[in-house]
Amino acid sequence: MAIVDITVIPVGTATPSVSGYVAEIHKFLKGYEGKIKYELTPMSTLIEGDLKELLEIVQQLHELPFQKGAQRVCTNIRIDDRRDKENTMERKLKAVENKL
Amino acid sequence: MAIVDITVIPVGTATPSVSGYVAEIHKFLKGYEGKIKYELTPMSTLIEGDLKELLEIVQQLHELPFQKGAQRVCTNIRIDDRRDKENTMERKLKAVENKL
Amino acid sequence: MAIVDITVIPVGTATPSVSGYVAEIHKFLKGYEGKIKYELTPMSTLIEGDLKELLEIVQQLHELPFQKGAQRVCTNIRIDDRRDKENTMERKLKAVENKL
Amino acid sequence: MAIVDITVIPVGTATPSVSGYVAEIHKFLKGYEGKIKYELTPMSTLIEGDLKELLEIVQQLHELPFQKGAQRVCTNIRIDDRRDKENTMERKLKAVENKL
């Protein structure tokens, strides 16, 4: 189980707004409900699941702005992949909160 | 108003666990309540405020693992800084949710 | 043609040194010579090629520290994918240098 | 001694080209020659020096696209800060190359 944290930034669009592109990402992810867990944050989208599947999803999310006419996309991805423990978003939050 | 998304990763620590370091970050940020807004996510910490102040905070957060004995720290920072509109975490989330 | 900029950080590896892991990445990439272009920088590895293939390579690079005993790996990836022009590392450098 | 790896991406700038913005960054950095070392790569700019000074430089680099009319800037920063050894760009490259 790995967790991906992704931002997809179209470059050279007419306005500074990207919320429409982010909304497309979340409409797309709806189709994966049950297979992955995902969460919208103010700065990115977090996706939890099998890494191979996550990277396939990452490629499709990266493509979405091109489908809306973008000519350049800069995608930024963090992967956290821990194998000595169950590495879920829920467990990671609890591990910090229990120490506060 | 800018938003910073930060991960602070100690390298060469005895165990793969970093929750203790993340908890130190949030104990530290408590001292800035009222000046900044901040949020813990499963993958990073989001901080909203004046960019100059945010970068000063970033440097201090980056130092925390060294104070706990780390010898190397890799810090990763995303900055989103929008000046044609009020750029808060709350407004960014709403802008996406309204399009879903 | 896309360009990926990747860092692969093992977490909890007893020593702060990661050069051995980075060397493994470059030994691995040797096997792809002719299909992709890649470059070692002081902060990451840059790889130029077809994005689908690059993401398959990214997953294999991410796995390498686990094969050397790491229990947790944090991988950070930037993708620059431009489709209105030939997007090579060489062209990008020249585009900047011509403006200096 | 720390090393920063920075990309500064203007969002909503009508054309996908960013080489003009990157050139501005390198013109700006010329003014710091002797105090810091810096290097242009096809994907980012690497800067080596005292971390406090590097973060002050980061803020100024982040501002440059706004001075050219951008309304939104997404800046991405990696910091590598190692304190058990001299952490220079040159030494890091050699440490990997010696293991190839």
TrEMBL record, chains A, B, C, D:
Residues 4-97 form the Thiamine-binding protein domain. One of its GO terms (cellular component) is cytosol. InterPro entries: MTH1187/YkoF-like, Thiamine_BP, UPF0045_domain. Belongs to the UPF0045 family. NCBIfam families: MTH1187 family thiamine-binding protein (TIGR00106). This is Thiamine-binding protein domain-containing protein.
